[in-house]
Structure formats: structure tokens, C-alpha cells
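Hello K.,

You asked for the raw outputs rather than the summary table, so here they are, unedited. I folded two proteins back to back in the same session to keep the settings identical. This is the first:
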Amino acid sequence: MRILDIQVGEVRIPLERPFKTALRTVENVEDIIVRVVTDEGVEGYGEAPPTAVITGDTKGSITTAIMDFIRPALIGMEIDNLDGIFKKLNGCILKNTSAKAAVDMAIYDIFAKQYNAPLYKLLGGARTEIETDLTISVNDIPQMVADSLDAVSKGYRILKIKVGKEGLKDVERIAAIREAVGADIKLRVDANQGWNAKQSVQIIRAMENKGLDIDLVEQPVPAHDFEGMKFVTSRVATPILADESVFSAEDAIHLIQERAADLINIKLMKTGGIYNALKICSIAELYGVECMIGCMLESKMAVSAGAHFAAAKSIITRADLDGPSLCKIDPYEGGPIYRENMIYMTDAPGIGITRVPCRFEN
């Protein structure tokens, strides 16, 4: 089975409410969808969100990378030659990780369909269901408390609280949410690079002193500040999760060997897809470092690929796969089953998506 064509389209899905972090505010998912077509008529799908403030990718750059560089490099290749495909995919253009991730997941989709098996089983088959957190956008305290209580009423037991804009004011946010939701709900704090190293230690220690029982703090300092991450990790008791600091296997090795973080957040849009994410998993397993599977502002298409990856590997102990829950509608058919905080894998071949709501161009 050979790659016959690679096509792109766009999807636009409104969010239930604006998604706000220390870096941006977004009201709609507006992503590039990829379709890979084979000479035997089997199709695979992938998705790339334009997250310029994190990956540097825009809709224009994603489309250009796929159509002008990736497509000519891969057409004609045998699907079974995964190693050769992914070496070409990663070597035909530097960076452009979201574009690579979209094509990567479409290739894996076809590969698993070829063997009539769900992808997660071919990658490892560690579990059949995943519990995800739900993101609470950064807003004024009453709104964040209300959003948190709404999430808990729907069955969510883990909340990921966005902070990073107002320093010590963030402690008040977390304290108010903890008081409102009670002690049984896990709280994760995501600063999205919003603090410096000394400020991070001050804020995290303040949360510890208040007994807020935080599950983890995600990326407190700027992505490039590995020394700052190490400074924070070594001075607080709360686990520190590296997100934007880890794009590659090399980044993971550096952080782990320097003890600059306790946990690693793997996102397919940062790694360039499943192929490279598997390398980070292997490194994490070697060092005994637990991982989270995360997502950008992705729709069900890309999140489903992330769910298959998470279901495959036991070293992935946490999940932040709430993209479909943030969307107002689900225009897709097939894929894993999303029921509020739980994601259930199915036996559908590949990633499982059977209908994609866009028109493709080549």
C-alpha cells in the first residue's frame, strides 16, 4: 500500500466559552485537517492547530510545509515502511512540528487500518479508558470559581487551572477554587510560562503553606529557561511539569538529567507526532519519569490521536485531553467515546474517525 496523495482542508468549531491563558485568548478552533490517500483507497486523517505563540505554526505555514515539502517527500512511499516515512517526514523541513504531527497521525491511522486494529493496541495497549482533566481559563476569581463548580457538577474530578498573569494574585485564585470544590478534587496549576524563577518559588511555596494540595505546577517559567526550571524544581515540594520546555527527545534527556522537572508533558504538536513522542516515552521509562499527554486547542481529530497514544503507554499517568469538551459541537463521526471526564477506546480500526467536516484540496 503506497501513499498516493496528501491533501489539506480547514475546520472551524466554536468553543463553549473563550479559552484564556497567560499567552492568548481564543474563541474558535480553526485548524488544518490533513487527509492522506493510498493507492488502495484507504485514507488517514490528522489535524494541526495554528499555535503561533507556542510552536510558531500558523495556518499558512502549516499548509505550505505540508504541500510544498512533506507531500513531495512522501508520495509513493510504502505505508509499511514507517521508519523510512518518518525519517523523510522529519528530514524534509526543520521545525514545523504541527504540520509534521498532522501527517504523522494520518500515516499511523492508515497503518493501523491496514491491519484492521485500533492504533492504541498496535502501540502498546496499556489501557482501554483514560481520565482527563478540564481546563479552567484565567478570569476574575468569581468566574473561575463558577467555572470550576460547573465542571465538578458534570463529573470532572481533575481541574487544570490557568494562571500566570498576576503573580501572587494567582494564589488567591487557587485558594478560592480549592475552598469551593473541596478537598477531593485534584487541582493542577498551569502558569504557561507566566512567572520568573524566584516568583515561581514564592507563589508555589505560598500555595503549599496554605495547604492547597496542588497535584502539579505546569511550566512556571519561560520555555528556554532550563536553569529557572531547575531552580524551581529543587526548591518546592509540589511536582513541576515541563511543557513548553520539551519539544524533542533531546529536550527530555536534558531536563531529566539536569533534574529540572519532575514530570514531562508530551504533546504531539510539539514533538511532530507519535513517532517522536514514542522516543520521549522510552526515555521517560528509562529514567522512571512519569508523563502527561496534553493537547493544544485541538478538536476531536487530533485529541483522538493523542488518546490512542496515551492508552498505549503506561508511563503516561496523567491526561489533559479536554479539547472536545471545550468545543460547542462535535462535527466528527467515530473515534474514541468522550463522556465528560472519561475517554473510552473502541475497537474501530486506526484512530477511528470516519467522517471529517471539511473539503480537501491538493
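The second followed immediately with the same parameters:
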Amino acid sequence: MKSIKNYILAAVSMIAAATTCAQTQHSLYFLEGNNQRHKLNPAFTSESGFVTFPVLGNINMTLNSNVGLGTFLYPQGDEMLTFMHPSISTDEALSKFKSTNVAEFDLDLDIITVGFNAWGGTNTVGLAVRSQSGAYLPYDIFRFLKEGQTQQEQEYNIDELNAQTQNYVELAFGHARKITDRLSVGAKVKLLFGGLYAKANAENLRIYMSDNEWRITERSKLIGSKGFNFEYDEDGNIDGLDMSGFGVAGYGLGFDLGAVYRINEEATVSLAITDIGFISWKDCSVAENRNQEFVYNGFDNIGVEDNPDGSNDFDDAADDIKDSLQDLVNFKDSGTQGHTSSLYTTIRAAGEYGILRNKISFGLLASVRLGAPRVWTEAMVTANFRPLSWFNAAINGSLSNVRHSMGLTLNFHPKAVNFFIGTDYILAKYSKQVIPVNAAKFNFAMGLSFNI
């Protein structure tokens, strides 16, 4: 049993260390004069055309996690103990884990975007790189690692252990226009070129432990697009990964839709749905571990002495157990097949009210992100300040199903240039290694563009 626990612990550690998921910075939503607001709602129009500085036009990185360093490590004097250490009580250790423990990282990087006014509205053409990765670890994994076998019968049901990454290039065409003096609508069409996709999941992992018997069953699957090349040994089991031969691994289509309605001079409401769509990945390599089972009910009538032929019954039985455990983590080649993944669709509904001739406004933005193993919800309140015609700023506070946080964004937009920098989520506590101690929700965004 120690072997299977080590396998699971190694997998959890690698997944947690490797995941680093893209939502555009939400506090930009109410910053008039910013050239990137069309990413949040395609109905936002612009008074002038613009072109972004190559690569630096929009950089947006977001980390979502409901666990942190303090979930796994505990300071004890000069030492750091893991949550599995005997001196850490089971109740204390497990109280920090959620039903699903998540770590996601998104990257949204504009290569270049051009905006121009024509055909009765504002138009945008943009080329961007999008990267979305995440790991989703169920509670019972950590319960198994902490408790193991007790004096009572124990059963661990580990469903939907999941890790995935999706990376693609996006070519987007957008148009926004005013229908009336109060109503603006917009839409965007996105052509998607898949670069790299991989997914690993255990659909059904059951661990039953009692004084008389241990039983483990598993069904799991690995999928890798072009560039992820599984290497197999002579028995047909994966024994390596060759990452080479990258190229266009799939194609997809996406849409953004939005509307903005000005109730009066002070109040505005808006609604947007972004990233409706999919990517179809071709010729993905697939490896599976289908309904493997390990059963151990003790050693019966086995001595430790050598037999006359030199064999040893105890060693032979131990080798059989080792081979059975090894089968649980062996993946067989299942050939290639197509695979379709959805985009991370986000729904945003907002309201804004201005005072002092709109020099100050207050906004409420509600967001729901779909299309992933984890649904994210968030409510953000912002105070927006416009003291000068070329400068505005937003201070926000947010509450989500990850954690609450605060942020600040500055936007400089004189006649010829638009530059912004900020974050929606400021982490309050870090370790000496600059790793979030508690649940981590953090992003950073900046961009530079030139008005035409």
C-alpha cells in the first residue's frame, strides 16, 4: 500500500507544481478610454482607432487556486512539516482541503490588435495567444494520503481526478455599433488554431481497506495532441514522453456577444457572453488504463526460507504484489483519435452609476465562467475615478467561490497613447519563496497601444 500511496503523492505533487488558467482583467470593464475593454464586452465602442504595441499591447496572467502553501505545510520550530506528519492531527489537516482542490493558470497575450472606425461602428482585428491550464484534485486523495488504513474499514472514492492544458492562437474580428443613442451592440468572430492540448484523468479510482483485504480499482486515460508523443516499452506500456513535432494540432471557432444600454446620463447596464465555441483536435495520442484491479488479502502459508530450487515464496509473493501495483499506473496504447474541447465561456452582467458629472462612478460586475471542470463565480464592486480627461483609475473589491480580494488598475490615455497596468486580486500573504500561503487568486495585466 505504501507503493500506491507514493504513486498518488508523486502525481499530486507534480500536478500542483506544474499548473500555472485566461480571464481578461475585470476592473478594466468600467475604465472608459481603455482600448482593451472590447475583450470583456464586444459592444464597447471607441471614439478613435488604435493599434497595440506588438506583444506588449496586452499581457494578462491570472492564477486561481483554492489551496496554498499553508494547506500542505505546517511550521514547527525551525522545520516545515507536511500535512501527513503524525504530529498534525487529521481533523486539522483535512479541514483545509475542499471537495475539489483546484489550481489554474491563464495567459492572454496579444500579438497585435488594430481598431478602426468604419461601416457605422468600431471594428477590431486581433491576433493573440491563449493558454489555459488546470489541475482538479478531489478531497478523498488527501484523506487517503493522511489517513491510510485505520482500525476501521475505509473506502476512498476518488472521482474525476483531472489535469489539462489547452493552448491556441486566436484570430478575432469584432464589430460594435450604436443602434440608438442609448443602445450599443457588438459581436466578435474568432478563428482558433490549436497548438497544444493534453488531458489526464482518473474517472473511477476506488480504494477499499480493511483488516482482511485491500482492494484498488482504477480506470484512467491520457490524451495528447500533436507534439505530445507517448513512448512505449516492449510490453506496450508508457515509459516516456517525447515533446516534438509541434504544429497546428486542431481548428476551432468562437464567438463573443454583448450589449450596453444607457438608462440615463448617470446609469448604464450591460451584458456580455464571451468565448462561446470549441476546438477540434485531430489525431490525438490516447493511452488508457482500463478497469485495473489490485486485491491483497495477506500472505497465506508462505515461509521466508529458500526452497530446494533456490526460490523464495515470500519474495515471489512480494514481486506479484509489486507487479499488480505497477499495473495500476501502466497505460496502454489506444491509438489516435479526434477530440473536441470547449472554450471557457464567460457570462458578465454589469451596472454602473456615475456622480459628479461622471467624475466618479460605482460599478457592479457579476461573472460566471463555464466550460471547464470547475465553474467560477464572482461579484466585483468597483469605484472608478476620472479626475482628468487623460487619466482614470479603478479600485475594486471582489468576492468569489475561491476567496475575496482587492485590486487597483491605472489607465493613462492622452490623445496619442493608451497605457494601463494593474491587478484585480492582491494576495495578502506570501512565503519566503513568494508562494501564496493561503488560497491564491491573483492576476497581473498591462498593455500599451497608440491611438489613430
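Residues 6-22, 298-307, 310-325 have pLDDT under 50 and may be disordered.

Happy to rerun anything if the numbers look odd on your end.

Regards,
P.
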